[in-house]
Amino acid sequence: MKPYINIPHSERLHFRLMDEKDADLLFELDQDPEVMRYLNDGKPTPREDIDNYFIPRMMDFTDAEAGCGLWSMEDRENAECLGWILVRPYGFSTDYCEMDNLELGWRTRRSHWNKGLTTEGATAIINVLKELRPEINKFSAIVDADNIASVAVAKKLGMTFKKNTQHVTPKATFDVEYYDMPAR
Predict the structure, then answer these.
(1) In the 8-state DSSP scheme, what is residue 120?
(2) What does pTM read for this prediction?
(3) 3-state secondary structure of 169
């Protein structure tokens, strides 16, 4: 059995793997129309969707031994949750799941945008996973092309645009851009 992957704190952030007890934090973050702008046209996520869809789906891909799940980015000074970084196999729960390709995603409180925190958090996680998961060949992200900030994060992480594609979830299908970078 692999040991639980721990993400050491970065300059400004502490990391904690989220679970079902974090439903209130997830709900609160999804109530900001600007945070949700490129995810569902700015509509706040209903609480029942957090409880009945988001949490069960998150728990399906959470694997502490593999470093997969939602990593809460918390302020090192006051432990405030500033957002999260998603880590899971690309294409999770589809016929094209790529176990050697880790998808990264992010959601950050608007009050903490434009401070480099998302890039700092994702970089810290990538660095640990590169070291502890040698079977990983690449890291990827899917983003809405109009979401300039998320495109910028992917590029700052070292990812490059590869293709336009669709992201299919049980609730909807989205047109997205696919970015990736080699793990080695």
Answers:
(1) H
(2) 0.94
(3) coil
Which of 165, 162, 152 minimizes the C-alpha distance to 182? Answer: 162
Residue 138: which of 115, 118, 162 has the closest Cα? 162
Structure token digits, residue 29:
């973050």
List the structure tokens of 129.
């996973």
Task: Please give the domain boundaries of the chain with CATH numbers for all domains.
Answer: 13-182 (3.40.630.30)
Q: In a 3-state reduction of DSSP, which class is residue 129?
A: helix
Give the tens place of pLDDT for each residue, 159-180: 999 999 988 776 778 899 999 9
Strand partners, 87: 69, 104
Within its chain, how far is the Cα of 127 from the centroid? 15
The answer, yes or no, to whether residue 84 has pLDDT greater than 60, is yes
The C-alpha atoms of residue 50 and residue 62 are separated, in whole angstroms, by 16
